[in-house]
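Form 12-C: Joint structure prediction
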Amino acid sequence: GESVGLHLPTLSVQEGDNSIINCAYSNSASDYFIWYKQESGKGPQFIIDIRSNMDKRQGQRVTVLLNKTVKHLSLQIAATQPGDSAVYFCAENNQAGTALIFGKGTTLSVSS
Amino acid sequence: ETGVTQTPRHLVMGMTNKKSLKCEQHLGHNAMYWYKQSAKKPLELMFVYSLEERVENNSVPSRFSPECPNSSHLFLHLHTLQPEDSALYLCASSQDLGIGRTDTQYFGPGTRLTVL
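Section 2 - Result
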């Protein structure tokens, strides 16, 4: 079946470090991937997305890498800040292209 | 603010009650979604509406009944729920690009539902 998973449920880093959050997906036909950030008491917030015709996309302090060969997606956060503490979800489009399938999430904790 | 609002933010109801969740998007999108988020589980897609037509019903029990009167509003009508239905219910919207292409979904803050 379709599923998206993350390698680690939690990640703890020091302020100023770079963070890397990983995600494995199962559907080789997926052509759209998104990273979301969810803070306590809020809905998921869009961070960055990437389509399958790209390997890398950069935003402000964030980079998404897509390795279609091994079906792996990663989110890199540069100079991690306490405000980055949240749960991060990756998602891929479903086979019908009508919706997103979400992974379980990685909780990022940033200490000062 | 993401441009997607949900009311109420919190709801406590008994198993025999009937209530409705409301979602409104101000982004000019033409697709809307309901998700269920339970502790320790991934977001579960419940319903998808595109151009006000339901295009996906993800095996959701009939005690959940969606309604999409126009492209800006989405409701989730609840009746005779069970305690295991307690969760965060999230609404999202996006632009349907057609031909099976999904686009970025923007989420509301969710309704925290507790069924007693």
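Section 3 - Comments
The first strand of chain B starts at residue 4 and ends at 7. The radius of gyration of chain B is 13 Å.
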